[in-house]
């Protein structure tokens, strides 16, 4: 069974692969024997998931593709829902949802040919709402729903499509939150495992879902959140 986690000679594309969860996923995939192509505005060369033409060009240049990880994402400023600007929704949906769709459509051909695997990065916010994050929460909920739809539509081609729903994880996009000691203590208390997560822990779940060990799993949104979505930790009596 251990060999099922090995992906020697496989080829992967990781959007948002230059930092955070995407970068951790690239490192773990490479350690598993995978040839990884990074799609990121800070990559070399740079790519933007909102640029479908650029993604189509990369897809045409690949001889094969076994794994697509959609980790590119944004989080706009937290605001009460009645203060949200339409641009907040547009930005979250353009990158988090349409960016995921763009990549899936662009790489659909080689993924079907390889009977490959797709892993999208949603969020615990896709499963339980967080305060003052309506735009982000709605976009990640859409990623979860898109994952299920893709899994159904591509099952006949042997392509598996799953998602992870990370909890509070230290990344360049979130590190400012954890500089607030009050926030960090409150979040840590609310997480049943009692700690903030690391990007490598999310990457482990992503690589599992992309691997042969998950060959019967598709259409799943897997919480990787230290127990946050399972329920409240023990309450005082």
Shape: globular
- CATH C-level name: Alpha Beta
Compute the separation of the termini in Å. 44 Å
Rg computed from alpha carbons, rounded to a whole number of angstroms: 17 Å
CATH H-level homologous superfamily name: NAD(P)-binding Rossmann-like Domain
- Kindly state the number of beta strands: 8
What is the domain tally? 1
Roughly how much helix do the residues carry, as a percent range? 40-55%
Strand content: 5-15%
Mean pLDDT: 94
Predict the CATH topology.
Answer: Rossmann fold
Count of separate DSSP helical elements: 8
Class of secondary structure makeup: alpha/beta
Largest sheet: 6 strands, parallel
Low-confidence stretches: none
Which strand order spans the largest sheet, edge to edge or round the barrel? 2-1-3-4-5-8
Order of helices and strands: EHEHEHHEHEEHHEHE
CATH architectural type: 3-Layer(aba) Sandwich
List keywords for this structure.
8 strands; 14% strand; 8 helices; six-stranded parallel sheet; globular; two-stranded parallel sheet; Rossmann fold; 237 residues; alpha/beta
Describe the structure.
- The protein is α/β, with parallel strands linked by helices and 237 residues long.
- The chain has a single domain (2-169, 198-221), classed as NAD(P)-binding Rossmann-like Domain (Rossmann fold).
- It is built from eight helices and eight strands; from the N terminus they run βαβαβααβαββααβαβ.
- It has helices at 20-31, 52-61, 86-106, 108-114, 134-154, 175-178, 181-190, 199-210, and strands at residues 11-15, 35-39, 67-70, 117-121, 160-166, 169-170, 197-198, 221-224.
- The chain has a six-stranded parallel beta sheet with strand order 2-1-3-4-5-8, with helices on both faces.
- Strand 4, helix 5 and strand 5 form a beta-alpha-beta unit.
- Helix 1 crosses helix 8, helix 2 packs parallel to helix 3 (86-106) and helix 3 (86-106) packs parallel to helix 5 (134-154).
- The longest helix is centred in the middle third of the chain and has 21 residues, at 86-106.
- The radius of gyration is 17 Å and the shape is globular.
- The model has no long low-confidence stretch (mean pLDDT 94).
């Amino acid at each position: 069974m251990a060999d099922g986690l090995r992906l020697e000679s496989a080829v992967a594309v990781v959007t948002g692969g230059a930092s955070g969860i995407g970068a951790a996923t690239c490192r773990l995939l490479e350690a598993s024997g995978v040839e990884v192509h990074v799609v990121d505005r800070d990559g070399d060369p740079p790519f933007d998931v909102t640029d479908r033409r650029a993604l189509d060009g990369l897809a045409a240049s690949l001889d094969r593709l076994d794994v697509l990880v959609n980790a590119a994402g944004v989080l706009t400023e937290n605001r009460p829902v009645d203060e949200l600007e339409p641009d907040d929704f547009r930005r979250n949906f353009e990158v988090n949802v349409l960016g995921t769709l763009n990549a899936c459509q662009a790489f659909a051909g080689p993924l079907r040919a390889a009977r490959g695997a797709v892993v999208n990065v949603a969020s615990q916010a896709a499963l339980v709402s967080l305060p003052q994050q309506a735009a982000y929460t709605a976009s990640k909920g859409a990623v979860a729903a898109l994952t299920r739809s893709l899994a159904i539509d591509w099952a006949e081609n042997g392509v598996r499509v799953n998602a992870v729903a990370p909890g509070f994880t230290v990344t360049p996009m979130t590190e400012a939150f954890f500089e607030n000691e009050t926030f960090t203590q409150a979040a840590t208390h609310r997480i049943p495992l009692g700690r903030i997560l690391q990007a490598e822990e999310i990457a482990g779940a992503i690589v599992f879902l992309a691997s042969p060990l998950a060959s019967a799993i598709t259409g799943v949104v897997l919480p990787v959140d230290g127990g946050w979505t399972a329920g409240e930790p023990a309450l005082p009596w």
